[in-house]
Amino acid sequence: MEQPIYTTRAHVFQIDPTTKKNWVPASKQAVTVSYFYDSTRNSYRIISVDGSKVIINSTITPNMTFTKTSQKFGQWADSRANTVFGLGFASEQQLAKFSEKFQEVKEAAKLARDKSQDQGETLSNHSQESGRETPSSNQASSINGTDDEKIFHVGPETAVLKTENEHLKSTIEQSTTNAKKWETELQTLRENNARLVDALQESSANVESWKKQLGACKEESDTLREKITELEAQCNEANEEKQRNAQLSVRVQELETELHEKEQELENLRKQAEIIPQLMAECESITAKLQTAETKSKELEGRTEGLQLDIDDSQQKQANMKGELKKFMDMLDGKIDELHEFRQGLSKLSVDN
Fold first, then answer.
1. pLDDT at 179
2. In terms of C-beta density within 10 A (0-12 exposed, 13-18 middle, 19 or more buried), how is residue 56 classed?
3. Exposed/middle/buried for residue 226 (C-beta within 10 Å: 0-12, 13-18, 19+)
4. Is there a contact between 9 and 33 (Cβ–Cβ < 8 Å)?
5. Is 11 helix (H, G, I), strand (E, B) or coil?
6. What pairs with residue 59 in β-bridges?
7. CA–CA separation, 183 vs 290, rounded Å?
8. How far is CA 348 from CA 340, 342, 345, 351, in A?
């Protein structure tokens, strides 16, 4: 059973099979990319699935190499799939972790291959030793006597040796077949490795061209940014000019309103100017009346002064009359007192009488 040993998320790309230069997106968005370990086959695979579509199914071999082409992008070549896979990560840390895991899995695959080769060499040596022992057993059987005697005396041992010999022959044949397969796979791997080296060289050249294109794009981007800054400054100036124009429009409207008011005032003044002669005549008549009134006022003032003198004389006379009246009242009071005393004297005389 295969078990996932590491999982991450990345954008998946594949090299264009026709040009071997451009990258073709295998997923529209970031997908799950996992390392799987098969304990029965002792193998490792990188698998990625987008929905129901398998976009990466790459068995890791010791000859594979994971290359970092940028801060967040890495690639490796798969000779069996006859393609180059690329992964774009969201951060440098994810790329570094994936690269470290790739190296670990590659070392584990190398150890597994060495172990299988050691087992194959052990089986080959064992089969060769069995092949050497078989003639000696045949010689011993021929020395011991006839075929019937051989069967009678050494039958069980010969049967065991034949069984082992057949088993070893089948093992050797299988080893030979496996060796031929391995040679074929090795030749295929060498050819694929040569292709991958060419593809890697082309990708390196593409990286250089991409770097140049990136530099040109950066320069163009800087130029565009400067133009955008200039346009923003021009837009700001245009906005300020619009604000000024709006303020001037408001000021013009205010001045037009004031001019209209002044024209109305001027019209009113013109109307009033038409009434001025009539007002002047009225003013002259009023002036004549004022002069007459002043004359009368002066006459009245003279009369008022005479009346004031008369009032002062009358007040003086009234004050004198009040003084004389007071003296008369005092004299009258004295006379009344004398009369009262006289009455009392008369009453006393009448009482005496």
1. 64
2. buried
3. exposed
4. yes
5. strand
6. 45
7. 146
8. 12, 10, 5, 5
What pLDDT does residue 35 have? Answer: 93
CB atoms within 10 A of CB 76: 19
Residues 11, 70 contacting (CB under 8 angstroms) = no
Residue 152, pLDDT score: 37
Stretches where the chain sits below pLDDT 70 are: 1, 118-175, 178-179, 182-183, 185, 188-189, 191-194, 196-200, 202-203, 206-207
**Gap between the Cα atoms of 163 and 197, Å rounded:** 49
CA angle, residues 258, 263, 265, in degrees to nearest 5 = 95
Phi and psi (nearest 5°) for 79? -70, -35
Q: Number of C-alpha atoms within 13 angstroms, CB side, residue 59? A: 11
Whether 59 and 44 have beta carbons less than 8 Å apart is answered as yes
- The pTM of the full predicted model, rounded to 2 decimals, is 0.37
Going by the DSSP 8-state scheme, the letter that residue 30 receives in this structure is: -
Terminal Cα distance for the chain, rounded: 181
pLDDT of the residue at 66: 93
The answer to whether the beta carbons of residues 207 and 199 sit under 8 Å apart is no
Kindly report, residue by residue over 295-347, the tens digit of the pLDDT: 998 988 888 888 899 888 888 988 898 988 899 899 999 989 988 888 888 88
How many Cβ atoms are within 10 Å of 230's Cβ, its own excluded? 10
85 sits in which H/E element? strand 83-88
Q: Which residues of 111-135 are buried (b: 16+ CB within 10 A; e: fewer)?
A: eeeeeeeeeeeebeeebeebeeeee
Helix/strand/coil for 77: strand
Distance, in Å, from the CA atom of 6 to the CA atom of 47, rounded to the nearest integer, reads 11
